[in-house]
Every structure is written in structure tokens, then in C-alpha cells.
Amino acid sequence: MSTRALLAKLHGSTAAGVPRWAAITAYVTTLTVLPASVWRIAGFVFQAPLMVPSDTPPEGHGPVLFQDGPVYIVALTVVSEVLALLALGLVSRWGEIWPRWIPGLGGRPVPVAAAVIPAGLGAAALMVFPYALVMMASGRMLDGTPATGGLITHGWQTVAFWISYVPLAAWGPLLAVLTVHYYRRRRGAPALAA
């Protein structure tokens, strides 16, 4: 089976008029989350020696809403991956025509705003990752105060952390590019027939 056939089977057919660069960008967008997900599952769920564990959050962390238990880490990872995979909808036929299995909507065109507004808000929210990584690299919390405690890595652990988390910085900008492309392509295209 060719790569193109495998990808079409996994996410459906690419929508008409989607250039190759946009389809590749969508696939790359989905992969930006994967290294951090693997690192998080390995370190927190399987206790791989990827960090020096800490029992208390760093000063200035804010309220701890969830304990870093395996259920939370797995749920965070699954939600992150699903949200990243939604970027494929911006280049796929199912992002333009509701899939037939959706009651009441199946076969109808997806309103442009129904895709662009959530994708745009998501892209804007994801712009926190580049900022957070810069602040982390400079030894600061998001509010600019010096970081104390929290996640501690040494040597190869630090390299593994940065290799895993730097791709997240691209998630927001790539999603923004795809969202603008989707909007421009859909607004310029005639109404899709069901």
C-alpha cells in the first residue's frame, strides 16, 4: 500500500483544491504533539528516568487542579493528540462536508465559521508554548518570576526534554497557517454540494 493510500485511509481524502504544502503542513502539525506525549507518558506513567521527581510545585505555580497521576497524564496526552489530529480536518473532505454518520448534519457542508473560529482560537491559545519554552529556558515562570523547584533535569535528561517539547512551539503557528488557508480556500470556493 502506498503512503498516499495509507494516509487517505487514515484521515479520509484530501479536499479538492488543497495544495500539497497545506496537506504536508497538516500532517506535520499532528506530529508536533507526539514527542511531548511520548516523553510525558514515559516519564510520569512508566517512571522512566527522564527527570528528577519533585513532590511540590515550584513557587508561583498557582493552584494545582489535577494531581500528576497516570490517569491525568494519559487523559492530557489523549486530548492533546485528538486536538492535534483535528488539524487534518482543515485539509480533508470531512472538514468541508460533515461525515454521513453524524445525525442531522451528515452530508451537509461544514460552515466555514464552524471550523475557522475554533481553529483560530486554538491557534491563538497554543501561542503560549513558544513563550512558555522561552521563559522555561531562561529559568523563569510564565509570570516572569524566577523558577524554583518543579521539573528538574540534568545532562541527557535536559536534552531529551527539549527535543520532546520544542516541537510544541510549532503547533500554534502551523495551526494558524492552516486556519488562514482553510478560510481563504473555502471563502473563494463555490458552495459545496452535499
Order of helices and strands: HHHHHHHH
End-to-end gap: 30 Å
Class from helix and strand fractions: mainly alpha
Shape: elongated
Number of helices: 8
Mean pLDDT: 82
β-strand amount = under 5%
Helical content (DSSP H or I, runs of 4+) = 40-55%
Count of distinct strands:
0
Which runs of at least 5 residues are low in confidence (pLDDT < 50)? none
The profile of the biggest β sheet is:
none
- Please give the radius of gyration in angstroms: 19 Å
Summarize the structure.
With 194 residues, the protein is an all-alpha fold.
Give structural notes.
With 194 residues, this protein is mainly α. Helix content is 54%, strand content 0%. It contains 8 helices and no strands. The longest helix is centred in the C-terminal third of the chain and has 21 residues. It starts with a helix and ends in a 6-residue tail after the last helix. The model has no long low-confidence stretch (mean pLDDT 82).
Which secondary structure elements does this structure contain, and how are they paired or packed?
Elements: H1 3-11, H2 20-31, H3 34-45, H4 70-85, H5 112-126, H6 128-137, H7 156-165, H8 168-188
Helix pairs in contact: 2-4, 2-8, 3-4, 3-7, 5-8, 6-8
